[in-house]
Automatic annotation (TrEMBL):
Protein's name according to its UniProt entry: SRPBCC domain-containing protein
InterPro entries reported for this sequence: ASHA1/2-like_C, START-like_dom_sf
Pfam families xref list: AHSA1 (PF08327)
Domain Activator of Hsp90 ATPase homologue 1/2-like C-terminal: residue ranges: 26-136
Entries under Gene3D superfamilies matching the protein: 3.30.530.20
Family: Belongs to the AHA1 family.
Organism: Paenibacillus anseongense
Length: 140
């Protein structure tokens, strides 16, 4: 199969995937949810603690390693993301975008530098599940 037929393949960033969902919460509340121990466990995994500041290095109990590259409270997180079984790190970006109606925010997960179409599909399933669970957490 040539690269023209491969969904999500870019010349510069390898395979990539993006998923997004709009939630009825302000950007500030979504940030609180994402960075809370409960919310963080959904998308990042279990970490004893994490400082949301540029350059902070983390390792989760699940074996995911990374470095926070960009931290803009209420707006954006960009980090390297590398499970122990991966040969290379990917880049994960989470953006909180104001939605058209007030009091609503679009949460966007975008991951690039994935090494295969199969990995892209795995991560698509993961981020969709994370968004679903974040929505459920918000309701509680």
């Amino acid at each position: 199969m040539n690269s023209e037929n491969m969904v999500g393949l870019t010349a510069a960033a390898g395979f990539q995937i993006g998923v997004r969902r709009t939630i009825t919460l302000s950007q500030e509340k979504v940030w609180e949810l994402l960075t809370s121990p409960q919310g963080r466990k959904l998308w990042l995994g279990e970490t004893p603690t994490i400082l949301f500041e540029k350059g902070y290095t983390f390792c989760t109990k699940e074996g995911i390693n990374g470095i926070l590259r960009v931290v803009k409270p209420n707006e954006q997180l960009r980090l390297s993301w590398q499970p122990a079984s991966w040969a290379e790190a990917s880049t994960l970006q989470i953006r909180l975008l104001p939605a058209a109606s007030p009091g609503r925010t679009t949460i966007s997960f975008h991951q690039e530098k994935l090494d295969s179409m199969q990995r892209r599909e795995e991560m698509k399933v993961r981020w969709e599940a994370v968004l679903n669970r974040l929505m459920e957490l918000k309701i509680k």
